[in-house]
Amino acid sequence: MGHVIVIFGTLIALNMGFGYWLSEKNAESNQPQGVVEVEDVQAQAQPEPETQPATESAPASQPQ
Questions:
Q1: pLDDT tens-digit profile of 10-46?
Q2: How many Cα atoms occupy the beta-carbon half-sphere of 5 within 13 Å?
Q3: Quick one: which of 25, 29, 34, 37 is 20 to 30 A from 19 by CA?
Q4: Alpha-carbon distance 25 to 19, whole Å?
């Protein structure tokens, strides 16, 4: 069981070291700054939806 822990620990350490090495290499490379274009869009007047007059329905006659 101890061998399994040592093997997994070694693999985890290698994985973390390799990830750190890649991140350092990525940070060293000169990455160009991105360009962001912003467009000013004015809200257009929306026509109001046509409303139908509310009609109240008469309650159904109840049997007495």
A1: 999 999 999 888 888 777 666 667 888 888 888 777 7
A2: 2
A3: 34
A4: 10
Q: 9-39: b or e for each residue (b if 16 or more CB lie within 10 Å)?
A: eeeeeeeeeeeeeeeeeeeeeeeeeeeeeee
**What span, in angstroms and rounded, lies between the C-alpha atoms of 54 and 16?**
68
What is the C-alpha to C-alpha distance for residues 32 and 51, in angstroms, rounded to an integer?
54
Provide the pLDDT for residue 42: 83
> Nearest to residue 12, comparing CAs of 2, 20, 22, 23?
20
Amino acid symbol at 11: L
